[in-house]
Design goal:
The protein has 163 residues and is an alpha/beta fold. The chain has one domain: Glutaredoxin. Helix content is 31%, strand content 20%. A five-stranded mixed beta sheet has the order 5-4-3-6-7. A two-stranded antiparallel ribbon has the order 1-2. Strand 4, helix 2 and strand 5 form a beta-alpha-beta unit. Helix 1 packs parallel to helix 4. It is globular, with a radius of gyration of 14 Å.
Length: 163
């Protein structure tokens, strides 16, 4: 698995809504890239909703959030809609992204691991916990440590950007 200080592997993948997301296009913003095992499962629902609750503040502070699982696009769309997730969801059916990040676990599902990627494209922190709440809490701590109490000039307000 990748560690803090490693460059975040780039990927170009379809999103659940039919768009495309290239990680390198988010350079200049910090990225919360979270991998989760299964759409609509209790733990993944809790984790994703916690990121959604913080999304406007994260965007205003220069962060983007991207969720990745090995579910197909239809399952991720249902999950996104049911949980009102405002950020991009990437279906990784080929498991290529999960493999590149070293998060592929038992039964071919991604393990619950979050990478906080800096504006320079390097991994700042890795959160590896089976507890869904630990991930959003770690991101909140990173936000505070970065002094991101106030929105950065020109940062989004959570209503624009890729969904």
């Amino acid at each position: 698995m990748l560690a803090a200080g490693d460059p975040a592997p780039d990927f170009d993948a379809p999103t659940a809504d039919g768009g495309r997301l290239r990680l390198s296009e988010l350079r200049g913003r910090s990225v919360v890239l979270y991998f989760y095992p299964k759409a609509n499962s209790p733990g993944c629902t809790r984790e994703s909703k916690e990121f959604a609750q913080r999304y406007a503040r994260l965007r205003a502070s220069g962060f983007e959030v991207v969720g990745v699982s090995v579910d197909d696009a239809a399952a991720q769309r249902r999950f996104r809609d049911r949980c009102a997730l405002p950020f991009p969801m990437v279906p990784d059916r080929s498991r290529e992204i999960s493999e590149r990040y070293g998060v592929l676990g038992a039964f071919g599902w991604a393990r619950r691991i979050t990478f906080i990627i800096g504006e320079d494209g390097r991994i700042r922190q890795v959160v590896s916990s089976v507890l869904p709440g630990a991930h959003a809490t770690a991101v909140e701590e990173e936000l505070l440590a970065a002094g991101a109490d106030a929105p950065r000039p020109g940062a989004g307000d959570g209503t624009d950007g890729p969904h």
